[in-house]
């Protein structure tokens, strides 16, 4: 337990029995907390609160995944309505980071789900700018803002157009080879950051093993898009994460961009997941990735939410 400025008591939760205390503030992921704790995707020692006179003034929590040693994301950060809420949030986050993140250079990213058009909504804008100020006050910077898209049953699922032939991926090596090629000219902020740090092959290999390779859904869903002569044009990875169906990754190879293949590749991934009778499919792309965002819109996907991604690198 830490006694901080502003007469605060800053500490992690004592255990799952304090979940209702943590729920004293609200966020759109609150409904996932109990199951996350039960499945070890979260740990009480990574769920922190700032209390003043017994009242919850701020909270923060990291998501780690059941097999992770270190947390993967800071995805909860909320403050109350006190005039000094930004200072309170900063005190909480600095204390928690000092206890949870032992290697500052590998601090997990901060992600916050926000409404589309949040800058034009005065209430949302104040809340989000407060949170961004808290995080940036600990040394983080804005990495990307992303669209969150959702396909819903009843939306169209295009039939194959016939220009591309799809087949399952043959091996991990083939997927990493194609991911390496797709990083050339990427519009994704995470990809550009990785390319500034390491060769494309290493970046692709890390993403594959750290993220894509951990999905437990069938690998047969992963599809290579080929021209009729057998030359790869792109790929799509439909998958299930812990919360539902997703398009985990979609890429068009540089030599084949600009021909509209993105629509057919997205349609192939959508067909695979729609055939599983899923209640929804979700996917994300950076605001700066205009071609990908436009493809989702053409296919009838709904931009139901955005996300703010901040990083400490």
Written description of the protein model:
With 313 residues, the protein is α+β, with helices and mostly antiparallel strands. The protein has 2 domains: 2-139, 3-Layer(aba) Sandwich (Aminopeptidase), CATH 3.40.630; 165-304, Aminopeptidase. It has helices at residues 19-22, 33-38, 85-100, 122-136, 172-182, 189-197, 200-210, 261-274, 290-298; strands spanning 2-4, 8-12, 47-52, 55-63, 73-79, 109-114, 141-151, 165-168, 223-226, 232-240, 245-252, 281-286, 302-311. The longest helix is centred in the N-terminal third of the chain and has 16 residues, at 85-100.
Q: Stretches where pLDDT falls below 50 for ≥5 residues?
A: none
Number of domains: 2
- Beta strands, count: 13
Q: How much helix, percentage-wise, in residues? A: 25-40%
How far is the first residue's CA from the last residue's CA? 28 Å
Summarize the structure in short:
The protein is α+β, with helices and mostly antiparallel strands and 313 residues long. Helix content is 30%, strand content 28%.
Task: Detail the topology: elements first, then pairings.
Blueprint: E1 2-4, E2 8-12, H1 19-22, H2 33-38, E3 47-52, E4 55-63, E5 73-79, H3 85-100, E6 109-114, H4 122-136, E7 141-151, E8 165-168, H5 172-182, H6 189-197, H7 200-210, E9 223-226, E10 232-240, E11 245-252, H8 261-274, E12 281-286, H9 290-298, E13 302-311
Parallel strand pairs: 5-6, 11-12
Antiparallel strand pairs: 1-2, 2-3, 3-4, 4-5, 6-13, 7-12, 7-13, 8-9, 9-10, 10-11
Helix pairs in contact: 3-4, 5-7
